[in-house]
Amino acid sequence: MVAPVCPQSARGYRLAAVQDQDEALAQASDWSRRRCSTATKAGFCTLAIVGSVALVGLLARRAPPRAAAATTSLRSHAGGPALQEKVTISMEKLEVKERLHSDACEIEDSIFFPGNDLENASDIDSPEACCSRCRRHPECLAWSWGKAWGQPNSEVCFLKGAYPRALTKVAAADFVSGQTHQREKKGAPLQVVRRAQGQSLYCFSLLQPHGYELGLVAMQYRQRASIFECDEYALYSNRTFEIVPQVWTSFVNSSLSCDMGGEFGTALNTGIFLALWSKIVFDGRFIYHDWTVKVDPDAVLLPERLRPAMLQHEETARGTYINNCKFGLHGPLEVFSRNAVKVWALGATTCVKHFTELCSGPCGWGEDMFIDQCLHRQLNVRRDNNYGLLLEDHCDPPAGWEDCANETVASFHPFKTEEGWMACLQRTREAGGEARGTTLEAGSEAREARGMNFKRKKLLQ
User: Is the omega angle on the peptide bond into residue 114 within 30 degrees of 0, that is, cis?
Assistant: First the structure.
């Protein structure tokens, strides 16, 4: 069966046609529910709509405060006197930030602290109230408060603790954040970092709602390891559930089941991951970070090695992504720049149509091969080879790779038992967490293709 593609009417929600961001996004979401129910299950239609509409609002939220204020002013002009009154009230609340520099809390405007959540509360009407709530909580050391009127996190107070890792300051025009500096509390003094340009990581994993992955991810959180060492982390599944206290999965509209087969006998999971990517783009957290990193739950990820490795790779106008294997991109670790995710969000449906026609039906690829072919062949995203990021059993690893003694690799895969995963992590810690250098293999496509099996090489030509 040919994969469904969004009808032409979706074009009405593209960037140039958007007049009011919130209204357009609401219309697009409603349109997807009513007109793309079949396609949404595979993720194709949802990703196209979200890609062409939600990015407008995301860019506004990440903009400096003045730009955000201009957007608010435009909305008030379009919405009439009633909306102007609401915006005026909201702006009056924001003026509180100028009076908040007191001994009680350190206040920073347009900053968000992702992760380390203890609890959150709605209808908190000021950053002062959020700060006060944090000071009363026995483990709260920092907080973030949603200040942007009309946004999902408006007047929501997020309380932050010291676990599982240091907090990262992320520029976000729709938030105010602060610390309490209460040294008597558990985990104090709080570690807070601000990443240099090109070093911020947004990491996510897709989980099955049952099976070994749940135990693996819970253990990773307790060990302060893998995605939980990234600057922001997220978990997705086809059910919403709490995997450890205050760490919840986000819902993805997919069964998460697929067949095995195709040219290479792999999981035919492209539809699943298109649905996942539509949710990631809709959530919009990738826009605040330099690199978005997809990590399989059974991969041992070492963010402290990944960050220095990414200094070798530059952002471009159409984005950059990393090819981690001489046989082509492999899915346990996928790394995309901010612009690459934007281009992917806007162009995925074009790729679905192109490759469906090329293969006279579904191509029978896994998601890693589909996104590799889409970004590189169709969307002209820069493809950097770095074969020093991942060691795994399907990419011709050296003998003894599974002992995890290599001191530079940023990820090892697969380790499907808690004992095996933990043994690998412990070995990397003994070897030294930070990389002393990674291998960058660059060159022409002809050189890149050496070592491929014949079938895959033929398909990529």
Answer: no
Start-end of H helices in 317-401 = 338-358, 367-373
The span from the CA of 364 to the CA of 347, in Å, is: 20
Which tens digits make up the pLDDT trace of 419-456?
999 999 999 999 874 443 333 333 333 333 333 332 33
- Distances from the Cα of 172 to the Cα of 112, 283, 284, angstroms: 6, 14, 11
Q: Out of 3.30.450.20, 3.50.4.10, 3.20.20.80, 2.60.40.1080, select the CATH number for domain 96-193.
A: 3.50.4.10
With vertex at residue 340, the alpha carbon angle to CA 334 and CA 346, rounded to the nearest 5 degrees, is 115
pLDDT of residue 459: 37
For 349, the token pair is 């449906």
Domain pair 96-193 / 201-460, same fold: no
CATH of domain 201-460: 3.90.550
144-167 in b/e form (b: 16+ CB < 10 A) is bbbbbbebebebbbbbbbbbbbeb
More confident residue, 74 or 306: 306
CA distance 92 to 131: 18
Buried-state track 277-312, b at ≥16 Cβ within 10 A, e below 16? bbbbbbbbbbbbbbbbbbbbbbbbbbbebbbbbbeb
- Dump pLDDT digits (tens) for 155-184: 999 999 999 999 999 999 999 999 999 999
**CA atoms in the 13 A half-sphere facing the CB of 85:** 2
Q: Of 331, 347, 317, nearest to 50 (Cα)?
A: 347
Q: What is the pLDDT of residue 241?
A: 96
For residues 174 and 151, what is the distance between their CA atoms, to the nearest angstrom? Answer: 8
Place of tokens 């997220």: 234
| 157 bridge partner residues | 121, 145
- Distance in angstroms (rounded) separating the CA atoms of residues 404 and 425: 8
The two structure tokens encoding residue 184: 């008597």
- Domain residues of the chain, as ranges? 96-193, 201-460
CA distance 94 to 109: 9
Kindly state the tokens that stand for 343. 């281009």
Q: Residue 148 is encoded by which pair of tokens?
A: 């942007």
- Give the pLDDT band (50/70/90) at residue 18: very low
Count of CA atoms in the C-beta half-sphere (13 A) of 397: 22
Residue range 78-131, pLDDT digits in tens = 445 554 554 454 545 444 444 444 446 789 999 999 999 999 999 999 999 999
Place of tokens 């029978």: 364
The DSSP annotation for 79-123 comes to HHHHHHHHHHHHHHHHGGGGG--SSS-EEEEEEE--S-EEEEES-
Per-residue confidence band for 242, with pLDDT thresholds at 50, 70 and 90: very high
The angle formed by the CA atoms of residues 414, 284 and 240, to the nearest 5 degrees, is 60
Q: Is the peptide bond before 308 cis (omega within 30 degrees of 0)?
A: no
